[in-house]
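Possible regression after last week's pipeline update?

I re-ran a chain I had predicted before the update to compare outputs. Posting the input and the new output here so someone can diff against the archived version. Not blocking, just want to make sure nothing changed silently.
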Amino acid sequence: MEVEPPMKRLRAQNTLNMADLRETGKRVKEEARQLFQDKVDHVIMRLICVRGLVPHVIESPEWKELMGLLSDSYHPTSATTFADKHIPREAVYVREKQIKALRMINNLTLTFDGNTTRKPHSVYTVHATTPSRETYFLDAHEASDERHTTQWVTDKLLKTIRSVGEGNWGATCSDSTNVTKAGRRELVSIVGTMLDFCDAVHHLHNTIGDINKLPKLKFLMSMLKGIIKYFSKSTYSTTILRKERNLAGDDEPVKALEKIGKTRFRTYWTAANALDPCLPHIRNLVVAKSIKFKNTKIQGMFMNRASGKYSKFEQSILQYITIVAPIIRALWSLEAAHANASDVFIFWLAIIATLNDLFSKGPNVTGVPVSLACEVTAIINKQYHEFFTNEVYFVAFTLDPRYPNSDFLKKPTANATTIVIPALSQRTGQRTPLPYPHAYTRVKDFLKEKLQKDLAHYVANPDSVLATSIFKVLSAAEVASGLRHQLEAFWHGEWPFNQQVKDGNPLAWWESLQDHPHARVLAHLAIKIFSVLVNSMPDERTNSTITWFNSPTRGSQNAQTLVDMIQIGQWYGKHQNKDYVLSKYRPVVKFRNIEESMLQAVQTGSADDESVADIDGVADSDNEDEAEDKLLESEIDEHQPAQAVAFEIHPDIDINSKALKDMVSTDPVSVVSTVDLSSVLESPQAAMMVTDDGDADWNY
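New output (post-update):
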């Protein structure tokens, strides 16, 4: 009898815990929903910060309805949550990314400027600009309850500088109020590797402003503002003026008859330049009673030609346009992102050369009274001496391979001191004195001082980004002697400094020499000079964005919220935007080389002018217009202004140089260079490098 095997004992079966499964499923689903929520919130935050989406829109029923239609997985986030949580947290992330990126870059430019929000809060914006002209909005120091003294400004800027690293910075630039100017000087005395630049654009604006305030131009300014105000407020008058001129389509001069900005002094010239060709047509319309000015003085001027006021106004406007034109041309050119210190110097000289040529023709030819010419000359001299307080601009000019020194510098007099090169010239086989010895000494002394400061910083901070190849591979003695021999070779136009400039780009020219054993020391200094920014346009543009965000309907925003939004907006709108294109290098050489369409836009005022946008950001009322008129009149000095009979510039510059006038002329001026670089021998001995293991000798 077979015995049945024992039945296998089945394991106990556990009952599925559906509650746990459901809970896990809910958690996974909620995590996925939250991830989706975060992604949508991030896009909305970018819409707020990059595109200016007004936060209260996301509190509206329409917004919530839209979000519900798009996805029931998204729960609309409140504006308060964006303002108090998402935007501040993202701003911290952006600042960390900016600092990390900037620590890898040399020769940064620090720019800064003050602004006031509507709340009001007082803010100092701080930007970093790279040699390739990428701009980073780093900080905005808010201290409405503190006095903005030189020490306060310096301390705040040092905090920003040191967050990146002192050795990364090449220069600082700002306008020249008492505090900002003193702050720059204090800053460069502490951080010796930095150069000190005054905002070239701002200074030219102030120069035009000083000219506008001359008593001899009071009649012109008063009538000009009244006429422009009338047309800016009357669509009917503008329309019939366009018909009177019998021009189809957009009539650029009529289009430019827009309001003059309170702090945008160049708009006076733009308005005058646009009004000039329209004057006969306006007179015809007034006589025909098609238009009528409320201002009886203006109405009478156009109605009564026999009074002489119309002729006086017509002559005054032509004189004003002619006098200010070279300043306007230089101003537009120097707003370019790639403008450098050499461009600033050459355009100031070109302004002076042009005005000197104009005034020398006399009033019988130009119509400009001698007294007005002398007053303008005094203003130019004053602004010139206030601007050029250090040698960096002159040095940049002499190191610019686009401009042969022989085209611009004065020939030494017979009894002038000469400097003899220790080595034999490769061109003549004799000891040849350096040309333009006084200019050479100025350049040499400036470069020696800057090189010594860079070397001292490297010795104290061997891991600094400033540790370029010259400091790593050369001793202090070799660095000193290298500068001496390389500067002499450059001054003579000898190898390797006799190569042609490509695309008019002096920075690229010097960068091609940075690893050359017979050029690298001088190239180190020149690259810094040509890498840095010479205007504070980044701060002007950020302040315009502050005005845009901080509109009257959003005037309760605090300063930090504005700063966070703009930093995020610039980061994602520019630095993280694959479609964003950096401005291409545009040589700032001659004004006539500007494209014809842009040239016309500059002359009629229709060019993009965001960089100098009115800081108020709102349309002025009639009361504000009247207050502005009174302010302009109060600014005009009724006392006899200063006069000067001659322009005062750097003693080494030839003011009558044709090359100077060629810079801003709309027509070519014949210039024959006296330097023939093709005759210079390409000999490696021409830029002799002396190896010296001893102490550095800076006494040369």
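Follow-up from reviewer: compared with the archived run. Residues 18-50 form the longest helix (33 residues). Marking as no regression found.
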